[in-house]
Amino acid sequence: MAFSAAAAAASTATAFASVRRISASSPSQQQMLRHSAQPLPFSRSAFPRAVAAKRRRAAPAASRAAALSTVRAEAKKSVLIVNTNSGGHAVIGFYFAKELLAAGHAVTVLTVGDEASDKMKKPPFSRFSELTSAGGTTVWGDPADVGAAVGGGAAPFDVVLDNNGKDLDAVRPVADWAKASGVGQFLFISSAGIYKPTDEPPHVEGDAVKESAGHVAVERYLAEQFAGGSSSWASLRPQYMIGSGNNKDCEEWFFDRIVRGRPVPIPGNGMQLTNITHVRDLSSMLALAVENPAAAAGKVFNCVSDRAVTLDGMARLCAAAAGAAVEIVHYDPAAVGVDAKKAFPFRNMHFYAEPRAAKEALGWASTTNLPEDLKERYAEYAASGRGEKDMAFDLDDKILAAVGKAPASVAA
Predict the structure, then answer these.
(1) Residue 237 is inside which H or E element, if any?
(2) Domain NAD-dependent epimerase/dehydratase: where (predicted)?
(3) CB of 232 within 8 A of CB of 289?
(4) Distance CA 21, CA 224 (A)
(5) Angle at the Cα of 83 (from 112 to 177), degrees rounded to 5?
(6) CB-CB neighbours of 23 under 10 Å
(7) Disulfide engineering: 302 pairs with which of 44, 312, 353, 375, CB 3.0-4.6 Å?
(8) Tell me: the pLDDT tens digits for 208-259?
(9) 355: closest CA among 393, 305, 311?
């Protein structure tokens, strides 16, 4: 449904007003900080600080287990997850479904496309038996006709999560169907990539976004469509993620080079900061939004961990997880003549956010512990046999040659 720029701005301002910058001086924020990691470097709520060198240790097993079991609402809900069939976001729907099922909720996962397609042979889709064995329902179809895909008519879902659409054309049919069907809560997986570059990192909810981004148009449409009435909406903006079942390379890119004794080429000086979040943190934030729909209503949440990591730091942490040494080679993409987007899995800039709104509004706490999580990921990587496969590193070799490094052997 089209609406004027003025109406869009007004509705967005209203919807986003409650997630503007949150002061760490509030009692609830102080309580959260006592039970979680120290704030990130350059945090507006904590800069400067003398304890930046302190690293968070792994949470006790009991605390981590308790944090993962976030949905304990007395009234169980029926939840529909419209899940993408490609890209890194597919694993979000998988983890979210598992968490909801473990808490006793009814879950249906509608995956885009055909169950018999080759995509369904890859994780996380190849692990959907974990959902059905826990009582979940999995179906395949076209989100543009979501009603027919889930059995026709106004299915009695309490919550709908769109984890598929990246623009208004894709999301509008699902959102319109949900509203017409009387769904009480509509959740949308957006992206932290919609923020404009800033001279004052990190990104926090309420920062300027790119007007041309498809996710922005979706958030504004939801703010208008679900304003008032008995239904609510919320948007969650993830960034880079890790976790079992992810089918988009993140830590694997580093492991591929480290286990073969190859240098790891990193654009720039390697001090660029970014977020890498375990997908369980994304699913736990979603689950809390389901448990507390009133608290989540009309808000956007940075769906990220509460720690940043440098690009060089990611290489070193991956090497430590693999029990190996690492040689890092820095380069200027323009001087070398390569596209950094093709040669490196992360943005060549400071690109990280803080989850302030989720901590304040939902009482959420991160459990991501990158050094420990990478050990688990490396164990899975090693078991997969990927480290023994033949691989070509043509772009790497071009970079290494340009900076005076003899290209390393590609042999495993």
Answers:
(1) strand 232-238
(2) 87-303
(3) no
(4) 22
(5) 80
(6) 10
(7) 353
(8) 999 999 999 999 999 999 988 789 999 999 999 999 999 888 999 999 999 9
(9) 305
Closest among 338, 342, 318 to 328, alpha carbons compared = 318
Phi–psi pair at 107, nearest 5 degrees: -130, 130
State the amino acid at position 245 in one-letter form.
Answer: G
Nearest to 353 by CA among 270, 276, 275, 245: 275
For residue 13, the surrounding DSSP H or E stretch is helix 5-16
Alpha carbons 40 and 45: distance in angstroms, whole number? 9
Quote the CA–CA distance of 175 and 335 in Å, as a whole number.
46
- Residue-wise pLDDT tens digits, 322-339: 999 999 999 999 999 999
| Prediction pTM value | 0.81
Give dist(CA 313, CA 241) in Å, integer. 16
DSSP label at 251? Answer: H
Quick one: which of 125, 123, 120, 93 has its CA closest to 107?
A: 93
Radius of gyration of the chain (CA): 21
Helix or strand holding residue 112 (H, E): strand 106-112
Residue 174 and residue 171: Cα distance in Å, rounded? 5
DSSP assignments along 271-326, one per residue: --EE-EEEHHHHHHHHHHHHH-HHHHTTEEEEES-S--EEHHHHHHHHHHHHT---
For residue 115, the SS3 value is coil
How many whole angstroms separate alpha carbon 27 and alpha carbon 363? 12
> Given the DSSP bridges, would you call strands 264-267 and 328-331 parallel, antiparallel or unpaired?
parallel
The answer for residues whose C-beta is within 8 angstroms of residue 297's C-beta and 6 or more apart is 185, 232, 233, 234
**Tokens of residue 131, six digits:** 């959902």
Q: Are 362 and 187 in contact (CB under 8 A)?
A: no
The token pair at 196 is: 């404009």
Distance CA 258, CA 399 (A): 17
pLDDT at 359 over 70: yes
Which candidate, 93, 40, 389, 104, places its Cα nearest to that of 238? Answer: 93
Helices (H), 85-213: 90-102, 129-132, 146-149, 168-180
In whole angstroms, give the CA distance from residue 258 to residue 82: 37
CA 163 to chain centre: 11
Place of tokens 């790119």: 210
Work out the angle between the directed axes of helices 251-258 and 311-322 (0-180°, nearest 10).
60
Chain segment 103-132, per-residue pLDDT in tens? 999 999 999 999 999 999 999 999 999 999
Residue found by looking up tokens 């090693």 in the block: 382
